[in-house]
Write a structure and sequence with these properties.
By secondary structure, the protein is of the alpha+beta class. The chain has 8 helices and 11 strands.
Length: 228
């Protein structure tokens, strides 16, 4: 029940609704690099990450994987569960050992209908994701390397919170420079140069296998004023 209660998507539900939802949920465990679901599968489950990390990805005809996002504990996946009958647009794989709480999509939609006070929060979470995705499209089309990488880091922070409101503390993203380069279609050297600049400004800390955004608001302010 705590996993659902801590997920931003469930913040608008009363406790009795979350308790009921927990009784309909199932827990699944995955090893690192084990598929959670494949692209094209029917979208029948809403997934909440209880522990570990999950990467969302797509694969081309030659089998090359393009990583799109990595989600951490507390985040939710399964946006198309709000569109009954839609197939999954992307695949999901355990980035580390992971535990995932799954809730039937039709049950979740029924739960929202019975607790309409949940709609503003659910719509806000979905809207945040849509806004973030549209912003990335705009940045890729119009901005240079500095803005693209900086905005992508802010997007990753937002996704790691599951779409909840930004906090004031640091956010650690378990991705390497190679992961960022693969995700954005850039070279590792270009990504490293930009991240080093952010680090020199005190906006990020570069660790082994991870990047920590020390202050999201400070990074956003820097991007708004810094020339690319």
């Amino acid at each position: 029940m705590k996993v659902l209660k801590d997920c931003p998507l469930f913040a608008g539900f009363p406790e009795e609704a979350i308790s009921e939802a927990a009784s309909h949920a199932r827990l699944r465990r995955f090893q690192r690099d084990e598929a959670v679901y494949e692209k094209g599968e029917p979208q029948v489950w809403l997934c909440v990450i209880a522990s570990g990390m999950v990467r969302i990805h797509s694969v081309n005809a030659e089998g090359r994987e393009a990583m799109l996002i990595v989600l951490d504990q507390g985040a939710w996946v399964g946006d198309a569960v709000f569109a009954p009958g839609a197939d999954r647009v992307y695949g999901a794989t355990a980035h580390t050992k992971a535990e995932i709480v799954e809730l039937p999509g039709d049950y979740f939609r029924d739960l929202m209908a019975r607790y309409p006070q949940s709609y503003p929060v659910v719509l806000d979470c979905i809207s945040r994701r849509l806004w973030s995705a549209m912003t990335l499209i705009e940045e890729d089309a119009l901005r240079g390397t500095l803005a693209r990488i900086g905005r992508r880091l802010l997007f990753l922070c937002d996704m790691q919170r599951g779409g909840g409101a930004a906090g004031h503390g640091p956010v650690t993203i378990a991705l390497t420079r190679e992961h960022i380069a693969n995700m954005m279609g850039m070279t590792r050297q270009g990504v490293h140069k930009t991240l080093k600049r952010f680090a020199d400004e005190g906006l990020v800390e570069l660790g082994y296998g991870c990047i920590t955004v020390t202050d999201e608001a400070a990074l956003a302010a820097f991007l708004a004023t810094a020339p690319d």
